[in-house]
Amino acid sequence: MPVALDRHAVTERLREVCIRMAPSANLTTMNKNSRFGKLDFDKKGVSQEPVADPWPNLDDEQCIAAGDEAYSLGKYEVALSAYSRALRYNRDASAAWIGQVRCLISLGEYREAVTWANRALDRFPASANVLACKGLALALDGDIRQGMEYLDGAVEMRATSAFVWAARGESLLLTPNSAENAHRCFLKAIEIAPDDWSLMLRIAIAYNRAKLYGKARDLLQTASRHAERNPLVLYHLGQSFEGLGQYAIATGYYQRAIESRGDFNEAKTALRRAQLSGPFGWLKRAWRMER
Fold first, then answer.
1. DSSP codes of every residue in 31-84
2. Angle between helix 128-140 and 144-156 (nearest 10)
3. Where would I find the beta strands (DSSP E) of the chain?
4. Which long-range contacts (C-beta less than 8 Å, at least 24 apart) are formed by 90-94?
5. What is the DSSP code (8-state) at residue 212?
6. What's the confidence (pLDDT) of residue 53?
7. For residue 47, which phi and psi values (nearest 5 degrees)?
8. Cα dist. 165→162, 178, 238 in Å?
């Protein structure tokens, strides 16, 4: 029988862990060795007990819920820890395997993501989501042809999820003259999950990466109506407006992202950059140099 989740307890526990792990949770200052230390398995794929357990008194479902919450905030190191802890309880928790791989992709650790996707495929060979994770990691790492083969295989499976279509669209954006095909994949994903603001956020992140800032902005504004204080939504809205040359608006979103998440160093860096850009940016830079 599934254990009922106490969402308040999970959220409070996540907040405590985020505070404890804040230095390592920052994408720009993390220690690579400590990151992969969170994926703590022996040669047979059996998880080992950690030296210090940041997730006491939570079962596997609660750890997955905490990981999902951290992932939605862009705290990928914290999410990795939660998903890894879930797998210590239940090695067949596919959501935790997929969560780990998606975190590694979001961290830019594409080869490591492929490695862990392979381990997940050993356990879930018929999982379209795991296939899509591996395909997306391969494509982002530069092997677009092979990545698309995995993604096409995932699409051909029954009951394809919104994530599979979104991953395929994100990979298509990496190839020349494929924006329209990517757009169709994204529309299919949104058709499957029309009320999922986090899906819109992930599609918008892909559009921002491809410098299609207008498309990203529109999706993010829709997502913000459902998650107006989410720091990741606010940060990527800032990136969209900065990419469109609207630095004052970008500055406002970066400031709101920092207010929502005080340890968001990427937003702090982006805020300084946006403040020194625009028509009077050269005056600000000169004033700083004189100081």
1. -HHHHHHTS-B-TTS-B---SS-SSTT--HHHHHHHHHHHHHTT-HHHHHHHHH
2. 160
3. none
4. 90/60, 91/45, 91/46, 91/47, 91/123, 92/123, 93/60, 93/64, 94/120, 94/123, 94/124, 94/127, 94/129, 94/130
5. -
6. 61
7. -70, 145
8. 5, 14, 26
* Each residue's pLDDT tens digit, 4-54: 445 445 445 554 544 344 333 333 333 444 455 556 444 444 444 444 566
Is the CA virtual torsion 13, 14, 15, 16 positive or negative? positive
Q: How far apart are the first and last CA of the chain?
A: 65
The number of distinct structural domains making up the chain is 3
47 - beta bridge partners? Answer: 41
Q: For residue 268, tell me if it sits in a domain.
A: yes
Number of Cβ atoms within 10 Å of the Cβ of 36 = 15
> What per-residue confidence (pLDDT) applies to 37?
56
Tell me the average confidence (pLDDT) per consecutive run of 10 residues in the chain, 291 residues long: 44 47 37 53 45 70 96 96 94 97 97 97 96 98 97 90 97 95 97 97 98 98 96 98 97 98 96 85 45 46
Q: 41 — phi, psi (to 5°)? A: -130, 150
178, 227: one domain: no
Assess if residue 201 is contained within a domain. Answer: no
Assess whether 223 and 244 both reside in one domain: yes
130: CATH? 1.25.40
In this predicted structure, what is the pLDDT of residue 3?
Answer: 38
State the pTM of this model. 0.81
Q: Which of 16, 4, 21, 22 is nearest to 262 (CA)?
A: 22
Q: Has residue 204 been placed in a domain?
A: no
Q: Looking up tokens 């992930």, which residue turns up?
A: 202
Does 6 share its domain with 110? yes
